[in-house]
Amino acid sequence: MSDIKKDRISFGPQSWLFPMPVLVVGTYDGNGNPDAMTAAWGGIHDTNQIGMCLSAGHKTVKNLLAAKERGDAYFTVSPAVSGTAAAADLVGMVSASDIPDKCARAGLHPLPAPTVPAPVFAECPLALECRLISYDPSTGSLVGDILNVTADRSVLGPDGKPDIRLLKPLLFDPAGDAYYGIGGKEDDAFAHTL
Question: Does the pLDDT at position 1 exceed 60?
Answer without folding.
Answer: no
